[in-house]
Design goal:
This protein is α/β, with parallel strands linked by helices. The chain is built from two helices and eight strands; from the N terminus they run E-H-E-E-E-E-H-E-E-E.
Length: 123
């Protein structure tokens, strides 16, 4: 096997413009692709410098159910500050809580896709 990284993760959304505002304005991601294709809009976002991008798949872009994604871990240098920013933007946050591997919190995007924030423990 010669796999080097994941290209993209699909996040099924009902409203791509609403999702785009959340991922760019609240999470600070940047747009990496925004194309009109015959089957629909191909919209991708990512944190600055990330290898893996997130495809905000709207209606017509596959057999996806909005809000079906779970367990997507986003690594951050300051989980507490990011949780405060999410709360300030009106996004409910669970945590952060301390674990042996780091400090973690969870939240959902406007469509209900489940995401987590992690500040890794220093060993």
């Amino acid at each position: 096997m010669n796999i080097t990284h994941a290209s993209f993760v699909t996040l099924p959304v009902a409203d791509q413009d609403r999702a785009l505002r959340f991922y760019t304005d609240v999470l600070g991601f940047r747009v990496t692709a925004d194309l009109d294709l015959p089957q629909g809009r191909w919209l991708q976002v990512a944190p600055e410098g990330a290898q893996t991008v997130f495809t905000l798949a709207g209606p017509g872009m596959g057999d996806f159910e909005p809000g079906a994604s779970r367990g997507i871990m986003l690594v951050t240098t300051d989980v507490d500050a990011d949780c405060a920013r999410l709360a300030e933007a009106g996004t409910p946050v669970h945590g952060p809580d301390e674990f042996p591997w780091g400090r973690m919190a969870s939240f959902q995007d406007p469509d209900g896709n489940g995401l987590m924030l992690l500040t890794e423990a220093r060993h």
